[in-house]
Structure formats: C-alpha cells, structure tokens
Amino acid sequence: MTFTILLDYIGTFAFAISGIRMASAKKFDWFGAYVVGLVTAVGGGTIRDLLLGLTPFWMLQPSYLIITALALLTVIVFGKHLIKINTTMFIFDAIGLGLFTVVGYEKSLAVGFPFWVNVIMGTLTGAAGGILRDTLINEVPLIFRKDIYAIACIIGGMIFFGCQFANLHNATSEVITASSVILIRILAVRCHISLPTLKGEENDDENEPKLPIT
Predict the structure, then answer these.
(1) Is 43 within 8 Å of 133 (Cβ atoms)?
(2) Integer Cα distance of 37 and 29 in angstroms
(3) What span, in angstroms and rounded, lies between the C-alpha atoms of 33 and 131?
(4) What CA–CA distance (Å, rounded) separates 189 from 197?
(5) For residue 18, which of 91, 76, 80 has the smallest C-alpha distance?
(6) Which residues have C-beta within 8 Å of that of residue 75, sequence separation ≥ 6?
(7) What is the pLDDT of residues 131-143, one digit of tens each?
(8) Is the CB of residue 196 less than 8 Å from the CB of residue 146?
(9) Phi and psi (nearest 5°) for 38?
(10) Exposed e or buried b per residue across 113-149, where buried means at least 16 C-beta atoms within 10 angstroms of its C-beta
(11) What is the DSSP string of the chain?
(12) Is the whole-model pTM more than 0.90?
C-alpha cells in the first residue's frame, strides 16, 4: 500500500464519520446515515475522476464501501460520545479535507494536467463531498458560507507545489500539504477568520414584491 492510498483510506474514514455523525443528528436511520457517509466520502473524488475522464475510484474496488460501513459501525458503537462532542464533526471534517485535497492533487498530477487544474481537482476532491453531504441533510454547504473551507484547499495546493519545486520527498510534501490544510481550517475557525460576505438589499415586508391574487 502506497502512502497516498493510506491517506485516501484515512480521509475516507474521516469524511464518512463526519457525514454519518451529521446524519445521526438529523435522526436518519442506519441506511440513510450510511448513504450520507458514503456520499461525503466518495462524492468529491467521483466528480474529480469524471472530470479527468477516469472511472470513479470506488467502482474499481469495494474498500471504500467497507470503510464507510466501518465508520457507521463506529458511530453506532460510540455514538453517545461522538454525537455529544460538538467538535467531533469539525475535527473529522478538517482531517478529511486535508487528506482528500492531497489525494486530488496527486491523482490529477499523475494524469498529466497542468498546475492550475491540479489545484482545482484537489479542491474539488476535498470540498465537493461536503457540499453533497450538506445538501442531503438540508444544510447550507460550508463552502458557500463565510467559513475558510475551499480557500484552505487552494492554499494547500500552492504549498504542495512549493514543496515539489523545492524537490522534497513526495511523502514529505503530502504530509506538509495535508497538515497545512487542516491547520488553516482549524485556525480559521478558532480565530474567527473568514471572508467578507456580500451585502444584499434587505427587503422588509413593505418592499417585498407582492404576488398577484387570482
């Protein structure tokens, strides 16, 4: 097993945990929670592979389905502890974000795409699963809020290729990049660092458009 595959498996477990934990908070049944966890874990990578013209990775081996099942079992067994800890979902989500971002960079790089495409594919791999998860549980996706989420992946891409330019060992580059994305995500939340939001017109009841009465 290569180091990149190990990161992929750990990221799969982490993202699946975050999705299943959020599904449990919404009172999903076991099957519904498994679906949310699986979509969270493989959604970003599936979109990435389709854009790269590849067969989605989870269709080539059952390991990702099994890892998601193990994540579900973990939540079932330790659910009382995981659900009550408010930071659990955030920590697992941050870990999955960092690890999956690296996997996306590596896979796009292996196919031979240029630097800017690698950054986009890494960001999609890390962030798109969370978008699908939040959509399934009827939440506004984190990437569309003021939280530093996808930006962390983009910065991670710059760091990754900086490490490549410095001729660092590939495993070292991956660890530095994943750690950077996780650290940026955690620090942004802890220190309340966010992007400015767009200010729209605030319509009161008098200014809201009236529907015609038929």
Answers:
(1) yes
(2) 12
(3) 16
(4) 16
(5) 91
(6) 17, 20, 21, 24, 33, 82, 83
(7) 898 899 888 887 7
(8) yes
(9) -65, -45
(10) beeeebbbbbbbbbbbbbbbbbebbeeebbbeeebbb
(11) --HHHHHHHHHHHHHHHHHHHHHHHTT--HHHHHHHHHHHHHHHHHHHHHHHT---GGGT-THHHHHHHHHHHHHHHHHHHHHH-TTHHHHHHHHHHHHHHHHHHHHHHHHT--HHHHHHHHHHHHHHHHHHHHHHTT---GGGSSBSSHHHHHHHHHHHHHHHHTT--HHHHHHHHHHHHHHHHHHHHHTT-BPPPP------TTTSPPPPP-
(12) no
pLDDT, one tens digit per residue, over 49-99 is 999 999 999 999 999 999 999 999 998 888 766 655 656 667 877 888 888
Which tokens sit at 5? Answer: 């595959």
Distance CA(187)–CA(168), nearest Å, equals 25
Give the tokens for residue 194.
Answer: 């966010």
Q: Which two tokens stand for residue 138?
A: 């009827």
